[in-house]
Each structure stands twice: as structure tokens, then as C-alpha cells.
Design a protein that fits this description.
By secondary structure, the chain is an alpha/beta fold. It has two domains: about 5-200, Vaccinia Virus protein VP39 (Rossmann fold, 3-Layer(aba) Sandwich); about 210-280, rRNA adenine dimethylase, C-terminal domain (Helicase, Ruva Protein, domain 3, Orthogonal Bundle), CATH 1.10.8. It has helices at about 5-15, 30-40, 60-65, 75-85, 100-105, 125-135, 145-155, 165-170, 210-220, 230, 235-240, 245-250, 265-280; strands at about 25-30, 50, 70-75, 90-95, 115-120, 140-145, 175-180, 185, 195-200. The protein has a seven-stranded mixed beta sheet, with helices on both faces. Helix 3 (about 60-65) links the parallel strand 2 (about 50) and strand 3. The longest helix has 17 residues, at about 265-280. The chain is elongated. The N and C termini lie far apart (about 65 Å).
Length: about 280
């Protein structure tokens, strides 16, 4: 297993590969951390696992020791070729995850998948967004991300880390911070700390337009230091919602008109959006 620095170097030389900055490749070389990640995912023998960017396959092999129904998506040709030829316990796709036909492949399995992955930090946000947009295909997502992103996705309202992406993530899942990982556990050594988070998928509210709701939240956070009544001005103008309707909805929900976007909880945003859109339908 390529899970130590001493085993990684000859392996990379053997297959003619090296860490690529363009793919944000930092390889996990701490076997104890690898075991801890897989243990936290609570895998059973008949689970369906999706791994994104397996690289040299250290995490893959630990997963495969407990479960053999594994789909792995790897963009790097050298690693994809090696794993497809040497790891018969997985189904390997050489592809870019952001372009991969997720629904087409996973829907054939007739069961929800668990995701386990060390995400490339430069594109972690779009990967998480794509997973959650296909929330019905998954039951649980255990991923490594940059420490700052982990704190942002698990932050509460009234904190500086609370953001539109926090609300987006919590709309589809219950998010839990698990543990921190030192830069010393990787090669090359990244300049930032990492962390493992776990997203337990839930059914999002079905009584609102999801895309419009996310746009509503994003617009409000574009001016996060302004009062919510001001930060929503552009959105409400475009959607024929008056200032008076905003004030009335805030009052009805016991939210101060002086509140800023970061002061509202995820549920506050949901209730506010629902109130404003219903007021438009009535008018």
C-alpha cells in the first residue's frame, strides 16, 4: 500500500508520475490517518462507495479491505491506468468528476452511495455543490477539505465563517466536523491544514424552488455587512417584492430589521424566503 513516504517515491518512479499542482495533488502518506478516515465513514460490506480522485490508491485500498462495491473517478491518466490494472476490487473511470455522468452511472446501482474522498482543495466547492445537487444519490459524504472550508461549512450563524455556502450545504445535509489533519501527513506538504467533515444527507424542503432559494441567499451575502433589508434590495426589486413586504415578513418571523445576513440561521433564511414568495403570490 502506498501509504508512507518511503513507499510513495519508488511507486511514483515506477509508473512515471509526480504530484501535479494543476490537479491540487497532495498525497496522504499517514496510514493511521487513512484508517481513521475510513473508520469514520462506517462502511459495511454491502455499501456502495464513490471515491473522487484516488491518486496512488492508499485510501482506496483501505476502503476495499472492508467493501468491494467501489466506484472511483480519477482524472490523472497515470494513476487511473495503474488502479484499473492493479486493483480489481474497484470500477475505475478515468474522467473529470465535474463532467462525470453521476446520475447515469449511480442510478443503475439501485442503492444510495457513500462518498469518501480527499478532495483537491482548488475545486472542493464545486465538487461539494455537485454532490449535493445530486443529493438523492447519496446517504453520506465523508471528505477531506481545507481546514478553513471545514470551519465554514460547520459554522453557526452570528460567526464570521457563516456564509451562503454554509446555508447551501446545510440545506441538503447535516454537517459534522470530525478531526483535523496536519500538513505533515501529506506529500508534497501543503501550506494549509486539512480537516475531515461528514455530511449526512437529508431531504431538503420540497415546498420551495431550490435554485431560487439559493440565489436569494447568495444575493443577501454579497453585501453581508449591510442590514438584511438592504442586502436583499436587488433581489426583491427584480422579483417585485416591496420594502414593506420585507419588513412585514421580518416582523412576522421575529427577525430584527437591523439584522445582517450572518445573523440569520439557515432556517431563518428558509422561512423568510417562503414568507416573501408567498406574499408575492398573494399580491
Amino acid at each position: 500500500m502506498v501509504d508512507t513516504l518511503s513507499s510513495l517515491f519508488p511507486f511514483l518512479k515506477e509508473i512515471g508520475a509526480k504530484p501535479l499542482k494543476s490537479l491540487s495533488q497532495n498525497f496522504l502518506i499517514d496510514k493511521n490517518i487513512i484508517k481513521k478516515i475510513v473508520a469514520s465513514a462506517n462502511i459495511s460490506q454491502d455499501d456502495l462507495i464513490l471515491e473522487i480522485g484516488p491518486g496512488p490508491g492508499a485510501l482506496t485500498k483501505e476502503i476495499a479491505s472492508q467493501c468491494t462495491n467501489i466506484i472511483a473517478i480519477e482524472k490523472d491518466r497515470a494513476f487511473a491506468k495503474y488502479l484499473s490494472e492493479n486493483e480489481p476490487r474497484i470500477t475505475l473511470f478515468e474522467d473529470d468528476f465535474l463532467k462525470f455522468p453521476l446520475r447515469e452511472v449511480l442510478s443503475k446501482k439501485n442503492k444510495k452511495a457513500k462518498v469518501i474522498a480527499n478532495l483537491p482543495y482548488s475545486i472542493a466547492s464545486p465538487i461539494i455543490a455537485r454532490l449535493l445537487e445530486h443529493f438523492d444519490l447519496f446517504s453520506e459524504i465523508t471528505i477531506m477539505v481545507q481546514y478553513e472550508m471545514a470551519k465554514r461549512l460547520t459554522s453557526a450563524s452570528n460567526t464570521k465563517n457563516f456564509s451562503a455556502f454554509t446555508i447551501f450545504t446545510n440545506f441538503y445535509a447535516d454537517v459534522k466536523y470530525l478531526f483535523e489533519i496536519s500538513p505533515n501527513c501529506f506529500f508534497p506538504r501543503p501550506k494549509v491544514k486539512s480537516a475531515i467533515i461528514q455530511l449526512t444527507i437529508k431531504n431538503p424542503p420540497s415546498d420551495i424552488d431550490k435554485n431560487q432559494f439559493h440565489l436569494f441567499v447568495q444575493t443577501s451575502f454579497q453585501k453581508r455587512r449591510k442590514k438584511i433589508t438592504n442586502s436583499l434590495k436587488t433581489y426583491c426589486t427584480l422579483n417585485n417584492i416591496s420594502h414593506e413586504q420585507i419588513e412585514l415578513s421580518l416582523k412576522k418571523l421575529n427577525i430584527s430589521s437591523n439584522a445582517r445576513p450572518e445573523n440569520l440561521s439557515c432556517n431563518d433564511f428558509y422561512l423568510l424566503y417562503k414568507s416573501l414568495t408567498s406574499s408575492v403570490l398573494k399580491s
